[in-house]
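debug: dumping io for the single-chain case to check the tokenizer round-trip. Nothing else runs in this session.
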Amino acid sequence: MPTTLTAFADVTTSDSALRRFLHGLPGVDAVGLEARAASLGTRSIKTTAKAYAIDLAISMIDLTTLEGADTPGKVRALSAKAVHPDPTDRTTPMTAAVCVYPDMVATAKAALNGADVKVASVATAFPAGRAALPVKLADTRDAVAAGADEIDMVIDRGAFLAGRYLETYELIKAVKEACVRPGGTSQAGGSGGGSAARLKVIFETGELSTYDNIRRASWIGMLAGADFIKTSTGKVGVNATPANTLLMLEAVRDFKAQTGIQIGVKPAGGIRTTKDAIKFLVLVNETVGEDWLSNHWFRFGASSLLNDLLMQRQKLSTGRYSGPDYVTVD
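debug: decoded output
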């Protein structure tokens, strides 16, 4: 089995070559995809397995605040919650990351004070991506220089939907290079480099119109060096769904089978309850298996999900449902 992208070297040499490859991918059976996602969502989880799933889901959350009214105080409070999600129970896992705008990266980094929680930053003119390439790259470099461990970039959906696939590929590749800190090295896909921020590529699946487009965008992202592929910004009407996440999981499975390179997946937006989170974990387990069941390879982009997970965790522990007044407000 190959362990590099050598087999796909010719695919990205021209726009026409990339187009032929992408349009040669198998078409998505929408009915079958949605039926399988719905079927997996009906799996029942027993008490012991549920407790494990809740802790796993907590550890996979990118605790997020991406509002114009964000303040240093709010980011510090969110960072404290990421480290100790339930101050009354120090056995509660930390979240995977805190996700903020670039100008709040240094604040989050200082607040975390060395805790094993990553700082993720959106970049490239998030959420619309409507900016010139030099601006997008400067946005990325600023976040990395401030200490971001991860960059969540948005693709140019206009370019993609207009069929400018090579332009989309080259944008991702350029941002990947901008994720490298001075003296670091870039890696194409996989686990990221020691001094390079890991790159999550956001497709905004709700704007891509078709499942075939989501599959094509997934392959562009993976070929260009994404460490994660991510469904959404959380800023549009349709965000993560079981079906579009299942499709992206199938894409990373197929990519690893052909290249040996493992890529993470991050559904974001609209995942608010423990029941929702467990459905997504079932999708992961049944589609790509245990190799992806860690926060190094699977994340939830969420803000309100954590509180519901904490309430359900408290119920399993105490037998009582505490309610929202007993968890901290983000």
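debug: round-trip ok. The chain has twelve helices and eight strands.
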